[in-house]
C-alpha cells in the first residue's frame, strides 16, 4: 500500500502543468545559470599596492660567454652593496604597483565565425584587461650585479670582498598607465585583431615617467643624465593632453621575423625569434605623438638644460624586436 501511494504521488507530479514541468531555457536564462556569456575577474591588490622587494634577471654567460654570469636588478639591495645568499634586501626603493581600484579581466571564447554562421574555423580565447584610472608602476632602483650559483638556482652575488655587489645604473622611475586597456587573443587571433596582444587605450593626461636618471659609474665621473618627468601625449587622442596608445605584440620564430623583413643591423638574416612590438597606427601620419621632457639635467642639478618639447613624432610602421641570446 505504501509503495502504491508513492507511485501515485510521482505520477501526479509528472503530469501536472505546474512549475515542476520540464521547459526549455532561453539563452539569457542559460547565461545566468552557467555563465556562458564569459567570465569576469576583478583583481584587487593588497591595500591597492603590490610590493616586491627585488626582481632579478640573470645572464648565465656574461657578455661573451667567457665572462662570469651577471644580473639586472630592480628594487632593493642590502646595505647599498648587494645581496648575499640568504640576505633579504633592505635598502633602496622596491618594485611596486599602486592603484585606486581593481584590475578587470573579461574572458570570452568564440568559434570564430559571424553570428549565425558555421563556427569553429578560427576559434579564439579573448581576454580584455582594463586598468583603473590610477595604475602607477614604480620600477625600484635599477642596477647590475654579479650572479652566483648555477642555472635554476642563481642568486644575486654581493661578495664585496671580490666585487662591488649591486651597482646602481638607473634611478627608480614611476610610470603612470592609468586607464589603459589590453586585449589578448589566443588561438587564431590574426583575423580578429591582427596580433596576439593589442593595446588600444586612451591614457588621461598622457603617459608619464617620473624621475628618470641614467647614472655614469665610470672611474673618473659619477654624474647623472636626468629628466624630472617625461609626458607622452597624442596618438590621435580626442584631447590634446591625453595619449591614445596603439601597439600590437606578437611572438615569432626567426622565419616569421624574416618574412616580416626584420634583419640584423648589418643586414644579415636573424637566426632567432623574439617578441615583436608594432607601434603607431595603420594609417601613416594619422596619429602623431608629442613628448615633453621637464627638468633635463646633465651631470647634476646645477647643469640644467631646462625643458624640452618634441612634436609630431610619427611611429607608424615602427617595430621593436626583443630577443634572447
TrEMBL record:
It holds the Pfam family DUF6160. Keywords: Signal. InterPro entries: DUF6160 (IPR046158). Residues 1-77 form the DUF6160 domain. Residues 1-21 form the signal peptide. It comes from the Bacteria. This is DUF6160 domain-containing protein. It comes from Aquirhabdus parva.
Amino acid at each position: 500500500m505504501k509503495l502504491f501511494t508513492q507511485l501515485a504521488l510521482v505520477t501526479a507530479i509528472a503530469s501536472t502543468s505546474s512549475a515542476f514541468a520540464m521547459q526549455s531555457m532561453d539563452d539569457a536564462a542559460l547565461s545566468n545559470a552557467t555563465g556562458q556569456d564569459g567570465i569576469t575577474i576583478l583583481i584587487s591588490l593588497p591595500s591597492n599596492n603590490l610590493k616586491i622587494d627585488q626582481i632579478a634577471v640573470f645572464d648565465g654567460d656574461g657578455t661573451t660567454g667567457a665572462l662570469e654570469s651577471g644580473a639586472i636588478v630592480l628594487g632593493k639591495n642590502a646595505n647599498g652593496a648587494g645581496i648575499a645568499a640568504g640576505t633579504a634586501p633592505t635598502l633602496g626603493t622596491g618594485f611596486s604597483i599602486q592603484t585606486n581600484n581593481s584590475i578587470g579581466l573579461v574572458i570570452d571564447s568564440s568559434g570564430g565565425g559571424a553570428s549565425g554562421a558555421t563556427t569553429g574555423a578560427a576559434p579564439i580565447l579573448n581576454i580584455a584587461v582594463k586598468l583603473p584610472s590610477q595604475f602607477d608602476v614604480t620600477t625600484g632602483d635599477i642596477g647590475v650585479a654579479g650572479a652566483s650559483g648555477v642555472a635554476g638556482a642563481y642568486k644575486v652575488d654581493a661578495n664585496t670582498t671580490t666585487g662591488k655587489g649591486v651597482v646602481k645604473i638607473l634611478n627608480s622611475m614611476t610610470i603612470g598607465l592609468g586607464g589603459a586597456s589590453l586585449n589578448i587573443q589566443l588561438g587564431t587571433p590574426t583575423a580578429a585583431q591582427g596580433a596576439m596582444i593589442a593595446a588600444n587605450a586612451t591614457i588621461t593626461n598622457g603617459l608619464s615617467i617620473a624621475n628618470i636618471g641614467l647614472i655614469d659609474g665610470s672611474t673618473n665621473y659619477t654624474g647623472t643624465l636626468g629628466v624630472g618627468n617625461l609626458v607622452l601625449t597624442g596618438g590621435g587622442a580626442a584631447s590634446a593632453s591625453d595619449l591614445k596608445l596603439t601597439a600590437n605584440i606578437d611572438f615569432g620564430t626567426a622565419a616569421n621575423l624574416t618574412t616580416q623583413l626584420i634583419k640584423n643591423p648589418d643586414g644579415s638574416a636573424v637566426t632567432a625569434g623574439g617578441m615583436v612590438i608594432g607601434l603607431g597606427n595603420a594609417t601613416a601620419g594619422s596619429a602623431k605623438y608629442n613628448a615633453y621632457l621637464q627638468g633635463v639635467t646633465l651631470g647634476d642639478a646645477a647643469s640644467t638644460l631646462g625643458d624640452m618639447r618634441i612634436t609630431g613624432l610619427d611611429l607608424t610602421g615602427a617595430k621593436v624586436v626583443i630577443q634572447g641570446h
